[in-house]
Write a structure and sequence with these properties.
Strand content: under 5%
CATH architecture: Up-down Bundle
Helix content: 55-70%
Order of helices and strands: HHHHHHHH
Distance between the termini: 46 Å
Oligomer: single chain
Mean pLDDT: 88
Radius of gyration: 17 Å
Largest sheet: none
Length: about 190
């Protein structure tokens, strides 16, 4: 894939994800859909778990994970990164599944999951190429032991030991947390009957 396409997808990934949420929500409003309260609660729980994973993972990156171009100051293999190479993206997928559960519509799953699959099929190889070029053998060793999305049972024991700043992780997620909170309150008033 061309560098311009990779850079475009990476830079505007928030807007692709936002569209993946807005389109099914708009369809549900137009079609006068409803959501039972237990599904709204279940969706909210899954979403909170995903946001918690994002904030915790972001804390290991010292809150420097919200960027518009690929970059890294160091190879993080600590915390959730010792179990899975892409915990932030796994958190996003969990949030997407939580929203889909709360939407209670088949097209919500299709839009949200398809968007993440398409985005990450571009973004992850681009990031991994960058990490391979910058960190060489250390990244290859890490990649050999830690899978992209299927977590390990025991943490990878690499050389880099980053500490977590949960405060920075939470602070970097403040707008995402606010947006998801507003969305679920809106879901309650729009869809729960």
């Amino acid at each position: 894939m061309g560098k311009k396409v990779e850079a475009f997808v990476f830079k505007y990934r928030k807007f692709f994800a936002l569209a993946a949420y807005v389109i099914p929500i708009g369809l549900k409003i137009i079609l006068h859909g409803t959501t039972p309260m237990p599904l709204l609660i279940a969706g909210c729980i899954v979403m909170i778990l995903g946001m918690t994973l994002r904030a915790f993972s972001g804390g290991y990156l010292l809150g420097k994970h919200i960027v518009i171009e690929v970059g890294a100051d160091y190879l993080c293999t600590s915390g959730p990164f010792g179990y899975i190479r892409n915990p932030l993206y796994a958190g996003n997928v969990m949030v997407g599944i939580g929203v889909s559960i709360a939407l209670n519509e088949w097209y919500g799953y299709v839009f949200i999951i398809l968007t993440y699959v398409l985005m990450y099929s571009v973004i992850i190889p681009c990031e991994e190429k960058f990490l391979d070029e910058k960190f060489g053998d250390a990244f290859l060793e890490y990649k050999k032991h830690v899978r992209r999305f299927l977590p390990r049972l025991r943490a990878y024991q690499g050389n880099a030991k980053a500490s977590c700043s949960l405060k920075k992780g939470l602070w970097s997620e403040k707008y995402f947390i606010l947006l998801m909170t507003v969305a679920f309150v809106a879901f309650y008033f729009l869809f729960v009957r």
